[in-house]
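Name: DUF4212 domain-containing protein
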Amino acid sequence: MAERNDSQASEYWSATLRLLIGILVIWFVVPFLGGIVFADLLNNIKLGGYPLGFWIAHQGAIYLFIVLIFFYIWKMGEIDRRFNVDEK
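Structure predicted for DUF4212 domain-containing protein:
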């Protein structure tokens, strides 16, 4: 019985880490690529009167962070239910 619990705890932790690493990678890559690497190309497009590269670097990163918070909440709820550790 203890092996099953250890195995399940390990799987739960792995699923949680995969989610967290994926979210952190997205949070880094989108502002980095949009606000730095491709900024010159994106600055030809205007969003709300501002160049898109500038907007992604300053506002888009914040909006992305908020969206990722809600995505994390939703996915953690799924993971918790899958491993039967959710709060009912």
